[in-house]
Amino acid sequence: TSSSSFDWRTFGVEVGSCFNSLPSYCSFLNGPIDTSYTPKERKKPVRRSAEDDDGEEEEVDAVHQKSKSKDDNKLSAVEKQIKVLNKTLKNRDDEEKNKLNER
Questions:
Q1: Strand partners, 28
Q2: Which residue from 16, 25, 51, 59 has the highest number of Cβ atoms inside 10 Å of its Cβ?
Q3: DSSP 8-class letter at 25
C-alpha cells in the first residue's frame, strides 16, 4: 500500500491480541470452566400397587333430578352473544359478496 494511506491490516494484527483473549476474571453461569459437572440423581417414582386398595365399593344412592326451572330452557347470555355475532358476521359476509358482485 502507499505511505499516505493507513495500514489497516497491520493495525488489525497488532490490536487483535487485545480482543481475542478472555479476561482473567471471566466466569460463566455454572461457575468457572475448570470445575467438573456432576448431574443430580433423580428420585425414583413410588408407584401404588393394586393390592394396597382394600376398600370396598360403596353403592351410590340414586340421584333424583329436580324439575327444570324456567330459566334452564332459555339460552344463556354467552349463547345469546354467540348467536348475535354469528348473525352479524353472516350479514357482513353477504354485504361483501354483494359489493364484489357489483364491481
A1: 31
A2: 16
A3: T
